[in-house]
Amino acid sequence: MSRSDYIFASESVSEGHPDKVCDRISDAILDALISEEPEARVACETFATTDRVVIGGEVGLSNQEKLKDYLGNMEDIVRGCVKDIGYEQEKFHWKTLKVQNYLHEQSAHIAQGVDATAEKEEGAGDQGIMFGYASNETEAMMPAPIQYSHAILKRLAQVRKNGTEPLLGPDAKAQLSVRYRDHKPVEVTSLVLSSQHVDESLTSQDVRNIVSPYLYEVLPEGWLTDETVWHINPTGKFVIGGPDGDAGLTGRKIIVDTYGGAAPHGGGAFSGKDPTKVDRSAAYASRYLAKNVVGAGLADRCTVQLSYAIGVAAPLSIYADLHGTGKVPAEVIEAVIPKVMDLTPRGIRTHLELNKPIYERTAAYGHFGREPDADGGFSWEKLDLVSAIEKSL
């Protein structure tokens, strides 16, 4: 039987974290190509370090001449991302950084396994396992530690960018240790926040004075108590940040992107990958299914796993775990899932409308627990499958 009283911690990183800078650039390139052609194939990696951004990987458009034009015009996308994040440091400035572009045409051997033909259905872009998770412990049906770690950093980015707190820099990390009683989050036992600042004279206490009001604003009332242990910029000054302070790479924050360690992760990163790649699309589908199971009141917590083989359309397996909270057996959920959603790569993309330029916005503050956007962004967060699940029981 699972424990009901415990402390669990998760961390998030801001959009200015070096790895998130890279995720943002990779997803912005993906959006640009999908804007040109909804069926564009993209596997874009980004590396960032002092005064330099390197992009590489495989991309594909049906019009090869147009693809050549796009490959020659990626520098503006890179600089636009870095500018919006807010980097104007001497050794990492959106105007002066060097951009190296090594993107090239997609491998024909990968394409032959994925592309649909008259003889076969479109296959998965790779083999792998994907997990989705949902819990009714928060309104967003996300684990509280990661949900509120994201919320803190997103709020600090807002006040930094709108000029309310001009002394804060783009690079930041937050970590919350949350106490659970009877499986419900009730208080923060400790918090760690490291925020870059542009004034070298600021002390850790000065930074705490700046950020404290926003922590109280974001966290539920009563979660910060006299017993909460605070660690704000515990190493002291944090002026040199972003890729100048530490190199960044696409796909290194997969636990930050998902459930903060509260649920399994299949291992594949999301950013820079078009939705034929089940690392991304099937992880979104798994979250969508798990959230709708919880939304239907069939469990307090739900994990869904899907598995795929490259070039094969149908999932190889479907697994559900209701963590002892189910109102029906898990095998019933496993039987219902393929009835309510086509889980082939094309079926997922069609159901969730993933062939749209909706990915750059996912690159920071989590891919899950977000509000669905009117243009189709975060469609996997909708609860529009509840009725179909109930009817299929």
Give an overview of the whole structure:
The chain is α+β, with helices and mostly antiparallel strands and 393 residues long. It is 33% helix and 24% strand. The longest helix is centred in the first third of the chain and has 19 residues, at 18-36. The protein has helices spanning 18-36, 64-71, 75-85, 108-114, 144-161, 204-218, 242-245, 254-257, 278-295, 330-340, 345-352, 386-392; strands at 6-13, 41-49, 52-60, 88-89, 92-93, 98-105, 128-135, 168-181, 184-197, 229-232, 248-249, 301-308, 317-321. Helix 1 (18-36) crosses helix 3, helix 5 (144-161) crosses helix 6 (204-218) and helix 9 (278-295) packs across helix 11 (345-352). The chain has a four-stranded mixed β-sheet with strand order 1-8-9-10.
Concise summary:
With 393 residues, this protein is an alpha+beta fold. The chain has helices at 18-36, 64-71, 75-85, 108-114, 144-161, 204-218, 242-245, 254-257, 278-295, 330-340, 345-352, 386-392, and strands spanning 6-13, 41-49, 52-60, 88-89, 92-93, 98-105, 128-135, 168-181, 184-197, 229-232, 248-249, 301-308, 317-321.
Q: Which strand-content bin applies to the residues?
A: 15-25%
Q: How would you describe the oligomerization state of the chains in this entry?
A: single chain
Low-confidence stretches: none
Described by the principal axes of the CA atoms, the overall outline is: flat
The CA-CA distance between the termini, in Å, is 26 Å
Strand-and-helix sequence, N→C?
Answer: EHEEHHEEEHEHEEHEHEHHEEHHH
Main beta sheet, described? 4 strands, mixed
What is the averaged pLDDT score?
94
User: Helix content range of the residues, please?
Assistant: 25-40%
Number of strands: 13
Strands of the widest sheet, in order across it, are 1-8-9-10
Radius of gyration: 21 Å
Briefly note the structural class of the backbone.
Answer: alpha+beta
Number of H/I helices: 12
